[in-house]
Amino acid sequence: MTIRYDVFVADPVPLDVSEPVPNGDRRAFSPLSITLISGERDAVLIDPPLTRAQAEQVGAWVEASGKRLTHIFATHGHGDHWFTAGVLAERFGAEVVASAGTIKQMHHNVAIRAGFWDRLLPGQIPDAPVTATAPAGNLLLLEGHELRIVEVGHSDTDDTSVLHVPDLDLVVAGDVVYNGVHQYLVESADGGRDRWREAIAAVEALHPRLIVAGHKDKALDDDAGRALAQTREYLDTADELLSRHTTALGFFGGMLERFPTRLNPGALWGGAVALYS
Predict the structure, then answer these.
(1) Residue 170 pLDDT > 90
(2) Which phi and psi angles does 179 have, rounded to 5°?
(3) pTM (global) more than 0.90
(4) What's 77's domain CATH number?
């Protein structure tokens, strides 16, 4: 029996924020990677998206695969990686799973939803009660193939995990690894970037050949070595420029100069404002 993976990249969604990013861009959520790991009959979906419209697109994609969806897994608690899990679970009769730490962060994101998520995307996010459970031993089986939930601690938020699929030499990394998209630095102060590097090292220790980043430029491949190195480089550059610039705007401009091709400068600007506040 063989398994495979496919990735659906949901396009950026404009935010309900009138003020543009300093470079003139409109504020938007970063592109989202949704992964389907499938066998001959069954499949597991990783990191369902944020809005009802995205869930409709992903649902049609899953349906077109012809597979029976058994589980929906969320790598971490940020709402853009699980708020539509319930909608899709009901559609396909699937079970929602996550690590215990991620479930705790899910509850936190529900608590801040009205003041954060719904303010940015009013009326676009479905009801999203926390229904996830932690599977025994952090292990899922897909037609006999092991899908291992590996808890890696802090990355761009607390209590994150990745899904290791040894038979594919694959890690579905959520927001531990980024691929051609500006990284979310809002929660990276007070040693957060050092802990993020530890999470990257934990993924590297799994020796993947392929990594699906939670936010990726759909034009880029899933080469693990490149994605790991570039995610580290971004954090190292942030440390360097934070020590050199006294304002959020100076830091923002310096990072854009170093990473001119990364998508969604708005995510960078949000991090800059938080780090200098």
Answers:
(1) yes
(2) -140, 90
(3) yes
(4) 3.60.15.10
